[in-house]
Specification:
The structure holds 2 protein chains of 2 kinds.
Chain A: H1 17-35, E1 38-41, E2 58-62, H2 89-96, E3 100-105, E4 125-126, E5 129-133, H3 139-146, E6 152-157, H4 163-169, E7 172-175, E8 195-200, H5 203-213, E9 243-247, H6 261-279, E10 283-287, H7 291-295, H8 297-312, H9 330-341, H10 344-357, H11 359-386, E11 389-393, H12 411-416, H13 421-425, E12 430-438, E13 441-448, H14 454-465
Parallel strand pairs in A: 2-3, 2-6, 9-10, 9-11
Antiparallel strand pairs in A: 1-3, 4-5, 6-8, 7-8, 7-12, 11-13, 12-13
Helix pairs in contact in A: 3-4, 5-14, 8-10, 8-11
Chain B: E1 2-13, H1 52-64, E2 72-73, E3 76-79, E4 89-92, E5 99-108, E6 111-124, E7 128-131, E8 136-139, E9 146-152, H2 159-176, E10 188-198, E11 208-213, H3 216-235, E12 243-248, E13 253-259, E14 269-270, E15 277-278, H4 281-289, H5 295-304, H6 310-317, H7 320-331, H8 336-353, H9 365-376, H10 382-395, H11 399-406, H12 414-427, H13 431-436, H14 441-453, H15 460-473
Parallel strand pairs in B: 11-12
Antiparallel strand pairs in B: 1-9, 1-10, 2-15, 3-4, 3-14, 5-6, 6-9, 7-8, 10-11, 12-13
The chains are: A alpha/beta, B alpha+beta.
Chain lengths: ~475, ~475
């Protein structure tokens, strides 16, 4: 059998689709016992030939994208038998581009969560170390690319749901500008923050996928007009004199406890990387960003996302679709269906969201969160007038163990583990890619650029990728 | 005695090709669940797309109601759980309605009264449900149909005014063609807010809401019932409870549904999937130009400019089609007063007799004007014209070609008429002597004979004169 695991997207163009499908499906099935990344692995090949670079290329789709005739659960019991009647726009585009769907991947229930442990089919394991988490919510999509089962996969990112698991999996994860890729058919979590994006093992592959997915969709009023050029053609543009910034205080080792060895190693690696970036022509500057805004990132994110999620998931009542519980009245049917269908974690978020939206709390909680979000975005936009991007470690550590204890009020957690939501607040293009190893586990760097500058972000990320030997890496590779 | 304070909330479905936020059809049908797609059913992953035409029609209505127009169109979510609401929220407008602070002039017992409009907004309809003893049926055809809600200020003071307002508002919908406003199909529905206060009181009394009344007459009935009920409550020293009631048309009574204490918090917030879009002054003025002269404006024009009687003016403005027809006839150089007489008496009479309405009237304004012009030129008598119009409408034929077919052009040639008179006198040998003996009826008899010979085409006035002249000459 061909060794598919190290292959890039374009390596598949010349292969036989039926053979590719059958072999990758068996790889996927074999991988289940180790990683548990798939909710559904397809049995039948669906393939339409095209002259796209995605022609004959196998991929996996997060199980919160609507696929007509194919079970789509959002990894929740409330949708465990739901078979959609329509296709998400991106799924349609991928089909038309000749890409071959291998399976639907597991996520944190309804895409809410960042651990990859809360899906109804169980925890997704990290291919680098199956005792560790891959993170979420796009857990399965990160794992299958990290494990080399498919060259790319599709995810969704509301806070960091692509970029964080990409980091823990040692792969590249990208979400473009809000509206660049249609959300039609993506099960909504928090509509103002939700993004569609992808995983791959090189920035080039990420770019190829993005070029296929992007563009205006008349079914999504927030989608952007197409710019009329391929990002791929700008991947090698000159980046000298491009200016990047980072949050000086947040990556300052002196501010953290020395005993957190992992964190110190991540920050050391970041320091080294800045020098490398400068050596290839980037101008990199540390800046002061109001601490109170950074500390507010996580609570602001939780407030907005829980509120929108409560409303977005109000359609899950068992009346029109999905499993339905019995009840003596319509109200009771809905009540029982929701009580049984959602896990406790989800109910907690809905209760929070409901509380946040209540008449008496809206002003103080929901509307204030919106104001903080605006302050952060305004400050970022101001910085983006001078700089081409924000560069930061994606996370302060490696893939966590299941029962990791983290102080949720520490700076490390509030800022270093949650700064990626800036990309969602402002709808900025944002990419994470591996830039080193700590304890034989990959660590990752994140680049976030100005709105609409997707091409530039990919171009810069491509140059950054060249500084490291991790392009094309899969879990277990010996380049630690 | 108490002062009655009423505010109305009127929902009306817009006439559009597709639904408000989805591409499925907006059309009335008796077959359930055929105009339904994934968006209407609130399937996971769907997104709303605003129907630009609904926005335009809502804007048009707001302009026709002389409202203040916002600088942009934005939508909000109203969140609540019910089986008729597939998404679990309704997309509506709360922060920035389509229009605010407007008014409409209405007729109440020959008086014109101005009713103030609080706001008008655009939203989507729910599914319709039929409840049976142990099951319910849901029809999602209606789910997502564009709906406008017009809210009055609490400025209505009795049932007649409420009725007059509803009629005027319905007429405005028809005049602006935003809706067919068919009550029999539930396209227009009304909520009534009503409270009573002492004449000298400064604050409103406790408000009761009567939900979802489907006919204007029942709005009137519900208000009358509620005035009596609340008066009795107050007279007996009790307090009116703030609550939502429903009107039962069989019992002609209102019944309590729920008290306001357990009223729902709809948790309104901005609809994130619909970015705001700006309403430019240019666009607003384009839409404004599409609004025809409205009912009350036409009324004053007909009275002041055309000198029509109030009754005729009212008859003509009752239906925009009728009024448009009338104005078109005038445009063919017909005097307004003549056009009005022919419209009100002949056209309406004929339509009535033939059980037709103005929408399926074959006779065009041009055809009617041609007939009236023949009368102007003495080529046709009034009575002939009437029967001609009747035939033309009934047989769906151009009256001018009917005239040719039937040969009913008026004979105005006196020498020709004289020939017929002479003929008649020869055939009725006693006529002359009878006339000479003072039997005046002979004149009419001979006129009748001439009419018979000419199949009624002889000009009746000249014929009578000529008969007299000839008899006197003999």
């Amino acid at each position: 059998m061909i060794n598919y695991k190290k292959m890039y997207i374009e390596d598949f163009n010349s292969l036989e689709p039926k053979e590719t499908f059958e072999n990758i499906v068996s790889l996927a099935n074999e991988s289940q016992k180790d990683f548990n990344a798939f909710v559904t692995i397809l049995e039948n090949l669906e393939y339409n030939s095209s002259n796209s670079l995605l022609d004959k290329v196998p991929y996996a789709l997060k199980d919160n994208f609507s696929t007509r005739g194919i079970l789509t659960t959002a990894s929740s019991n409330i949708l465990k038998d739901y078979v959609p009647v329509y296709d998400a726009t991106i799924y349609k585009k991928l089909k038309e581009a000749g890409a071959i769907l291998i399976g639907k991947t597991s996520l944190d229930e309804l895409a809410m969560g960042g651990s990859g442990t809360t899906g109804h089919t169980g925890t997704v394991n990290n291919p680098w170390d199956t005792n560790r988490l891959i993170g979420g919510s796009s857990a399965g999509s990160a794992a299958v690319v990290a494990a080399g089962i498919v060259p790319f996969s599709i995810g969704s990112d509301t806070g960091d749901s692509i970029r964080k698991p990409a980091a823990y999996g040692g792969v590249v994860g990208f979400k473009p500008t809000y509206g660049r890729i249609s959300r039609y058919g993506l099960f909504a979590f928090a509509s103002s923050l939700d993004h569609v994006g992808c995983f791959a093992r090189s920035v080039r592959d990420i770019t190829i996928v993005t070029d296929v997915l992007k563009g205006y969709d008349d079914k999504d009023m927030t989608s952007l007009e197409d710019e009329g050029f391929d990002y791929l053609s700008h991947l090698n543009d000159d980046i000298s004199k491009r200016k990047l910034f980072y949050f000086k205080d947040i990556v300052d080792k002196k501010k953290y406890d020395n005993s957190d060895v992992e964190l110190i190693e991540v920050l050391n690696k970041f320091e080294e990387t800045i020098k490398k970036l400068e050596s290839i022509g980037f101008i990199v500057e540390g800046i002061d960003f109001p601490k109170e805004l950074l500390s507010a990132l996580y609570p602001t994110y939780m407030t907005i996302s829980c509120a929108e999620a409560t409303s977005n998931n109000s359609n899950l009542t068992g009346i029109i679709f999905g499993p339905r519980e019995d009840g003596k009245s319509i109200d009771e049917i809905m009540f029982n269906t929701r009580t049984k269908g959602f896990s406790e974690l989800i109910k907690r978020r809905f209760i929070l969201g409901s509380y946040i939206l209540q008449r008496e709390n809206q002003e103080k909680l929901f509307l204030n969160a919106g104001r903080i979000r605006r302050l952060i975005v305004e400050k970022m936009n101001e910085l983006f007038e001078e700089y081409d991007g924000l560069i930061m470690p994606t996370s302060g550590g490696v893939a966590p163990l299941p029962n990791n204890d983290i102080d949720k009020l520490s700076d490390k957690y509030l800022i270093l583990e949650n700064h990626l939501v800036i990309g969602n607040f402002g709808g900025y293009p944002s990419i994470s890619l591996p830039f080193g190893f700590v304890n034989k586990l990959p660590i990752s760097i994140n680049l976030t650029g100005p709105q609409f500058k997707d091409s530039l972000v990919l171009n810069m990320a491509h140059k950054i990728e060249e500084l490291f030997p991790y392009k094309g890496m899969i879990a277990g590779d010996d380049n630690v | 005695m108490y002062k009655v304070v009423i505010g109305l909330e009127v929902h009306c479905e817009l006439k559009t090709n597709s639904k408000n936020f989805s591409s499925s059809k907006n059309e009335y049908t008796e077959t359930p669940n055929i105009y339904v797609n994934e968006v209407d059913l609130g399937m996971p992953g769907i997104l709303p797309v605003t129907n630009a035409f609904s926005v335009k029609q809502a804007l048009k209505t707001a302009l026709a109601l002389k409202c203040e127009i916002p600088d942009s169109v934005v939508f909000d979510r109203k969140n609540y759980y019910y089986a008729d609401l597939p998404k679990g929220f309704q997309i509506t407008q709360t922060r920035k309605p389509m229009g605010r602070n407007g008014y409409i002039n209405i007729f109440v017992k020959d008086e014109i009264k101005k009713i103030d409009i609080e706001q008008i907004h655009l939203e989507e309809d729910t599914a319709s449900m039929v409840h049976h003893s142990n099951y319910s049926l849901i029809d999602y055809n209606r789910a997502g149909v564009p709906l406008i809600e017009v809210v009055t200020k609490p400025c209505i003071s009795n049932a007649d005014e409420a009725f007059g307002f509803l009629e005027a508002l319905r007429n405005l919908f028809l005049y602006t063609e935003v809706s067919e406003a068919r009550l029999d199909r539930g396209e227009m529905r009304c909520d009534v807010n009503i409270s009573l206060m002492k004449e000298e009181a400064k604050e409103f009394g406790t408000k009761v809401e009567i939900k979802n009344i489907g006919s204007f007459l029942n709005v009137k009935n519900a208000i009358e019932y509620e005035i009596n009920r609340q008066t009795e409550v107050l007279e007996s020293g009790d307090k009116v409870i703030q609550e939502t009631r429903r009107f039962d048309e069989r019992e002609m009574k209102t019944f309590s549904m729920r008290s306001k204490v357990d009223s729902v918090d709809y948790k309104y917030f901005v609809e994130p999937n619909l970015p705001p879009f700006n309403l430019s002054k240019e666009y607003i003025s384009i839409v404004k130009e599409e609004i025809p002269l409205l009912q009350d404006e036409r009324y004053s024009k007909y009275i002041n400019e055309y000198q029509l009687s109030e009754t005729d003016a009212k008859t003509l403005i009752k239906d925009r089609k009728l009024s448009d027809y009338f104005e078109e006839v005038i445009n063919y150089d017909i005097k307004p007063i003549d056009a009005s007489i022919w419209m009100v008496t002949v056209i309406l009479g004929t339509l009535n007799k033939l059980s037709l309405d103005i929408n399926n009237l074959f006779l065009s304004p041009k055809m009617l004007s041609d007939v009236i012009k023949m009368i102007y030129k003495d080529e046709l008598s009034n009575s002939k014209a009437k029967s001609l119009i009747y035939d033309a409408i009934k047989e769906e034929k151009d009256p001018i070609s009917l005239i040719k077919e039937m040969g009913i052009t008026q004979i105005n040639d006196n020498s020709l008429i004289e020939n017929y008179i002479e003929e008649a006198l020869i055939e009725n040998v006693n006529a002359i002597s009878d006339y000479k003996n003072g039997k005046d009826y002979v004149v009419n008899f001979i006129v009748g004979q001439v009419m018979k010979k000419t199949k009624g085409q002889a000009n009746p006035v000249s014929t009578a004169n000529l008969v007299k002249e000839i008899l006197n000459r003999k």
